[in-house]
Write a structure and sequence with these properties.
Helix content: under 10%
Mean pLDDT: 75
Number of strands: 8
Order of helices and strands: HHEEEEEEEE
Oligomer: single chain
Length: 193
């Protein structure tokens, strides 16, 4: 008796549509609510899409992965702290000669012949060479040092480290294999260096 219709058959713009049953007529003429959304109905009209309420505008942040492009320059991280900005690294196969004064941390992987004063730390890496005079808070020697070295706080000599010259320190730590040659003594209580 009643014929089922497809959703496309219920489109109101088509002139050939006719309503076959009184129930379907009641469904088709159901008044809409004040917000423009149709009230739920029975029968085939129930499958009609209803407009969705507007979204809240929330868009979750999705972390983006950096793409590695061969041959492209690498991006540097954001701003560094002032402590890191006064760090000098002398890389392998690089030689530096002179006086270093405005450096908090010096890392030597190559060769340095210089005077280093009023700095926080010196790190001579394995294979690195330092020749000169150093007045520092803390020093770690894993390479070769030749000259005058005063570490007010702590001096660490790694197993591959060799120090030759005049050495003064607050505290001394020498790994098995580390070598100290020359005038080696702790700093005196009176502060003489």
């Amino acid at each position: 008796m009643f014929r089922q219709r497809k959703l496309s058959d219920l489109a109101p713009n088509r002139e050939s549509d006719t309503i076959e049953s009184p129930e379907m007529a009641k469904t088709a003429s159901t008044p809409s609510t004040t917000d423009g959304l149709a009230e739920p109905t029975k029968g085939p009209a129930m499958s009609l899409p209803t407009p969705k309420p507007p979204s809240t505008g929330f868009v979750p942040e999705i972390p983006r992965r950096a793409v590695d492009i061969p041959g492209a320059p690498t991006r540097r991280p954001g701003p560094r702290s002032t402590q890191e900005s006064k760090r000098l690294i002398v890389g392998k196969d690089i030689s530096l000669t002179g006086e270093i004064t405005a450096c908090d941390s010096l890392v030597v992987e190559g060769t340095v012949q210089a005077t280093l004063e009023n700095s926080q730390s010196l790190d001579v890496a394995e294979g690195g060479r330092f020749k000169g005079r150093v007045l520092i808070e803390e020093a770690t020697i894993a390479g070769a040092f030749d000259g005058d070295l005063t570490a007010r706080d702590r001096l660490i000599v790694k197993a591959t480290g060799v120090i030759t010259g005049t050495v003064r320190f607050g505290r001394l730590e020498v790994e098995l294999g580390g070598v100290l040659k020359g005038d080696v003594a702790p700093l005196s209580e009176s502060g003489n260096e």
